[in-house]
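Section handout 9: paired folding examples.
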Amino acid sequence: MMAENCVPDSCFENLPKLVDDLDDYLKAYQAYAEFSGLKVDIYKDWARIVFEEQVVTHFISKFPSDGTLRVLAVGSGDGKVDSCMLEQLVARYPRIHYTVVEPANEPLEEFKSLINDSRPKFDGVEFEWHNKTFDEFQKLEEEKAKSTGADKERFHLIHAIHSLYYVNDLQQAHTYLRDRLVKQGALLVILLSEEAGIYRVWDRHPKLCEGSPATNLCSAHLRQIYAQSDTPYTFHHQSWPSDISQCFDASSVQGGRMLDFITHVRNFRQSAPEELKKDVIAFLRRLNQSDKEDEKSSGGYQRDWDSMVMIKS
């Protein structure tokens, strides 16, 4: 349910969009993604326990280890989360073909460097890199199938980790990804939960999304698609309270970049009208309040996300 706010619509006019400048976007994303040093550890634990249980164990029972496991990764970014999953897969499957779709060149190059630095751990993995948006990749694959008459490649695992916010149509994207799976293949999607701070800010101010390729999705939207089609899936909620106090320090460069990513507005502190800025900051302060009384509390701003695994029957 959309939160009430009293900010007039005029405050959202002519706001510079963060996505219009890729360099600024990447800096803002990096600041937001890395303000908690626990990020990689959290995903490593998730891959070792949840991914292992819901995906790898299923694969062991369905797909022989002497074959090639085919994976499609949608929006991998710098590959840090991918590597957590790959570590679990390579322990069981010596040969993996890993197709990466990532539109931003800089994080894609970081992913390649990460893999090169991790050899020989990933020597059995053959990578196929696509520096494209998901929609561009779909179009390319459709044209290839049409020109060759060959069937589209099918994958044992398709994952989209915090990337479906940028597709044009979630229902269509999900249908497309499901169709690209082999029988008993797994579609893994991670999206923000309804409790996540950035989702709540955009829910409060939906006009922040206008004119941006990003949409304000959370796991509830995909769960609704599954409910309407009576599709079984497994679900895991990851709580991740963090401290965003840097956002409230006008002298903090990193805090300013975090604000830019949360709002998707370039130079939010300087660009936003005072009324909008005051409302967003006050709202974030409330979200950042911890239930704990002790001064060592890490803050209560929720970065919660949910992973959902659907097996194609």
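Moving on to protein 2 of 2.
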Amino acid sequence: MTVSMTGFAAQKGQGAGFSWMWDLRSVNGKGLDLRLRVPDWIDGLEHALKAELTRQLLRGNVNLSLKLAREDETGPEALRLNGAMLSGVLAALKQVEDAAMQAGVTLGQPTGADVLAVRGVMETSALDSDSAALRAALLADVAPLIVAFKAMRASEGKALQAVIAAQLDQIAVLLVQAKAEVDLRSATAAQTLQQGVAKLLGAAEGLEPARLAQELALLAVKTDVTEELDRLHAHVEAARALLAEAGQVGRKFDFLTQEFMREANTLCSKSQSLGLTRIGLDLKTVIDQMREQVQNVE
């Protein structure tokens, strides 16, 4: 089953005297890029979460955030002023004001709220608590969050698989049309070849038979699209097999779409007919649309 790299899950929980809110989301990425925003005072939490996400996920830019609140402390008593930090901030402000005054620059006066907003000036009493029980509760609660997250990525992947399968069907239909156009083109191939021979003979009198045969062979090769059509058919079958595979197939699929486009470009360059050129351009359009979808496959 195809898995998408796009997903989202949110979950509330409580335990060890706290309540919390998880937010886990991801978009496509070349590898697995984890970005976590969790309280740093809970020893070992971030490391444990990264280890679990790395074990569960293969690719994607993944963001996990945790908002935590202490249930038994809701008023000012839940906060405390860090005197050392406050003194440092005020001293730094004085240095800035003195330097600005010497430079003839007028600064706006900071408010008390501005000072309190500096990180570290105000602390929560949660910092004094034993974080082991809380860490255990959070790690137990994150498991169903990841399950829901993976379920959404699987659901997105199912829809993605249907879209890509339909695009492969479009490509297969266009290849049938291309083969029919090639068969029609072959009716005029003899005339085209005769015109090519006439140009060669007119360009160089007394052309050697061996050289003439060589030029005719090159002309035939330039207009023969059999190999391109065969490769495109093979690519369609390979893509369908990838859709049925489990695990990380996004990189393989991305490479395969490049091969699709390479053959479609060659088909257009060798078309020698308006009808085949039109089909080739339609192929390139569908392949490019499929490539965009494949970018989200894990």
